[in-house]
């Protein structure tokens, strides 16, 4: 049982999920996706913080987005939870910051890794998925008036993600 | 340099025939204070039993509060005059009529500031000398174990009501008031409030917001912006106007709040349920730290390692930092101290980790960020101390307050402490603990100018603080030739106190211009204080 931030079990007795997360950490370190980084918060292997630098050419350009990544204890059999800690204007991000994405729900596969999740979130910022939106208002605007959507999203970035 | 007489007549003659080097005329003029010193003491002056706060920095007013912390009493300092029948009246003692408090001060007015259960915070007073406005605070009692509701920080006490009163000191008219409800502003020694020109920064420790107010010439306190949850003044409005399509439950609350209660509106606007977004100022801070580390290293793998150890590992510690104290550096930049909750409220915060950041409130950018043990920040502090001691534009005389950056003697003193310090990082922390500076905490009196006088700064200094006092008089020795003892300031009764063991606390109020000072000595038992007047006879 992993509790809070205090349990840092010696490497030999780390559970299967812990071993898997450690392996993914090494993998992420060796080959980090561009404009992304992540690492465990404090000494809790199951709670990570990730950072995505807004991709140039998108309305999120210039923003630094922080995300919480929370791994379940039975990882990788269940997906991690990915939550924005930085306000973002995006049709696939719930008003409380939760990222809504197929691979983080039913589309999850144990073959996916944190590197792939980060890449997926990053590409979601470039290409929102308005047909599976959690904020319909933003999706409608994205489909109906792309320029206005981008202006608002850029304004959010300047105000809340710098 | 050739020998100059320290005789006042010779100096006046000298002033007539020679011009001081460019830029030094004020320094030259100030040397006359070596001749004019408050060397005569009137002991145990018969005076009203008030707590005397300070002379305003222009010397126009003496601020005092009634013992029951209900009223503000303002005096105009004046020079005493008395008549004497003899030819040589200098030989005589002062006539008893002249030895009274009211021959030195005229009461201008007495205003009641406290109301209901509020009392005047006698440690708090700020003076805006361009308009001769005074800012006072009254508050109800502190609640220490206040529950952290509505986005409040856990562990910070609460005060039901804090009222700031803006007064025109000329006639004591109350011009405006600002109320903070269920909040906590550190009012001791003006710590939580900073005045620069007409801008006022008030730190709400409880709701982690820096309220920027402007004091208008009309005497109104106008809310300019609140920095904390949001950075720009219209961020919240922007968020709400964009929120029609983002369903959220905590928005409805904002519509209920009335418009004239800015503070409360801010608090209620703070989302509390299930919302874990970083506050505006934290987002800026974290992204500044992140970008610094990101740009330091170009190799991807090394960069990741660096971020993991220096950023993600400490992420929660950064998130948990709270704003302790703030000062203006100029009209756009704030120096903000961040620390843990424990250190924000306690008086001795030296051993708590702390950070300072320079924040530009117009661009909403963090300009720089240092830990309180950073050598780089210490070097800036040592060399450019006066840039931290910012004073409003029109208070030129404050430029002559001695600091280790403008005074060789103060610098020598600092260096000798530094050399003696066994642990350099402890020393740096201790020195940087004074940042950000408290507003208007230094007396501009020339008798504290370290290029004119030498004195024991454990017993007395320009810093407005209560000090433990001894029965020995405090000596002021000429810094220049002939290095002689020029005057002594002795607080308490002339013969020393009856009970040598009783702990005594003294405070000193020096007039900013005249050779004139008050010393107030209190024993810890609730006896009336002993007030001595020191002046040049």
TrEMBL record, chain A:
Residues 16-162 form the UBC core domain. SMART domains: UBCc (SM00212). Pfam families: UQ_con (PF00179). InterPro entries: UBC, UBQ-conjugating_enzyme/RWD. This is Constitutive photomorphogenesis protein 10. It comes from Cicer arietinum. The gene is LOC101507732.
TrEMBL record, chain B:
Residues 246-268 are annotated as: Disordered. Residues 248-264 have a biased composition (Basic and acidic residues). GO terms for biological process: carbohydrate metabolic process; positive regulation of proteasomal ubiquitin-dependent protein catabolic process; protein ubiquitination. GO terms for molecular function: ubiquitin protein ligase binding; ubiquitin-like ligase-substrate adaptor activity. It comes from the Eukaryota. It holds the Pfam family Det1. GO terms for cellular component: cullin-RING ubiquitin ligase complex; nucleus. InterPro entries: 6-hairpin_glycosidase_sf, De-etiolated_protein_1_Det1. This is Light-mediated development protein DET1 isoform X4.
């Amino acid at each position: 049982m992993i509790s809070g931030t205090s349990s840092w079990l010696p490497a030999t007795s780390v559970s299967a999920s812990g071993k898997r997360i450690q392996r993914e950490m090494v993998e992420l370190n060796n080959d980090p996706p561009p404009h992304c980084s992540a690492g465990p918060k404090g000494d809790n292997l199951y709670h990570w913080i990730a950072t995505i630098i807004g991709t140039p050419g998108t309305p999120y350009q210039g923003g630094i987005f922080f995300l919480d990544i929370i791994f379940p204890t039975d990882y990788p059999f269940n997906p991690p939870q990915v939550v924005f800690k930085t306000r973002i204007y995006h049709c696939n991000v719930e008003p409380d910051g939760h990222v809504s994405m197929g691979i983080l729900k039913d589309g999850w596969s144990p073959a996916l890794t944190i590197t792939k999740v980060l890449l997926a979130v990053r590409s979601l910022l470039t290409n929102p998925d308005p047909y599976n939106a959690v904020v319909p208002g933003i999706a409608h605007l994205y489909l109906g008036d792309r320029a206005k959507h981008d202006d608002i999203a850029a304004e959010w970035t300047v105000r809340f993600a710098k | 340099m050739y020998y100059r007489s320290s005789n006042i007549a010779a100096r006046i003659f000298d002033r007539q025939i020679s011009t001081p080097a460019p830029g030094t005329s004020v320094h030259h003029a100030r040397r006359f204070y070596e001749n004019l010193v408050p060397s005569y003491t009137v002991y145990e002056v018969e005076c009203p039993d008030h707590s005397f706060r300070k002379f305003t920095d222009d010397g126009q007013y003496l601020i005092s509060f009634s013992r029951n912390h209900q009223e503000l009493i303002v005096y105009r300092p004046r020079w005493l005059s008395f008549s004497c029948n003899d030819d040589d009246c200098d030989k005589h003692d002062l006539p008893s009529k002249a030895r009274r408090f009211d021959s030195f001060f005229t009461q201008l007015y007495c205003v009641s500031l406290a109301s209901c259960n509020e009392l005047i915070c006698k440690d708090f007073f700020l003076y805006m000398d361009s308009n001769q406005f005074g800012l006072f605070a009254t508050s109800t009692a502190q609640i220490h174990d206040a529950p952290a509701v509505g986005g409040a920080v856990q562990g910070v006490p609460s005060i039901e009501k804090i009222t700031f009163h803006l007064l025109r000191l000329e006639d004591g008219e109350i011009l405006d008031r600002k109320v903070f409800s269920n909040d906590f502003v550190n009012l001791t020694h003006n710590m939580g409030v900073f005045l620069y020109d007409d801008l006022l920064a008030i730190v709400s420790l409880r709701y982690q917001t820096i309220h920027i107010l402007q004091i208008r010439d009309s005497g109104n306190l106008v809310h300019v912006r609140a920095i904390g949850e949001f950075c720009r003044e219209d961020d919240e409005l922007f968020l709400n106007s964009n929120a029609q399509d983002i369903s959220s439950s905590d928005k409805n609350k904002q519509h209920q709040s009335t418009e004239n209660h800015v503070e409360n509106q801010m608090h209620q606007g703070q989302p509390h349920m299930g919302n874990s977004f970083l506050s505006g100022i934290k987002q800026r801070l974290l992204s500044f730290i992140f970008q610094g580390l990101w740009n330091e290293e170009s190799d991807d793998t090394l960069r990741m390692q660096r971020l993991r150890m220096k950023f993600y590992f400490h992420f929660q510690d950064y998130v948990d930092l709270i704003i302790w104290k703030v000062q203006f550096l100029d009209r756009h930049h704030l120096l903000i101290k961040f620390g843990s909750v424990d250190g924000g409220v306690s008086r001795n915060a030296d051993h708590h980790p702390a950070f300072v950041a320079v924040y530009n409130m117009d661009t909403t950018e963090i300009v720089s960020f240092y830990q309180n043990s950073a050598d780089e920040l210490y070097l800036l502090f040592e060399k450019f101390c006066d840039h931290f001691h910012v004073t409003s534009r029109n208070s030129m005389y404050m430029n002559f307050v001695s600091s280790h950056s403008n005074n060789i003697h103060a610098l020598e003193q600092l260096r000798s402490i530094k050399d003696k310090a066994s642990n350099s990082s402890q020393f740096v922390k201790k020195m940087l603990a004074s940042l950000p500076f408290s507003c208007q905490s230094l007396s501009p009196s020339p008798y504290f100018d370290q290029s004119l006088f030498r004195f024991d700064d454990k017993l007395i200094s320009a810093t407005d603080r209560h000090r433990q006092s001894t029965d020995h008089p405090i000596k002021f020795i000429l810094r220049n030739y002939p290095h002689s003892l020029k005057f002594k300031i002795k607080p308490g009764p002339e013969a020393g106190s009856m009970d040598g063991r009783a702990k005594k606390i003294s405070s000193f109020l020096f007039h900013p211009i005249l050779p004139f000072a008050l010393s107030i000595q209190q024993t810890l038992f609730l006896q009336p204080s002993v007030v001595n007047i020191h002046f040049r006879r």
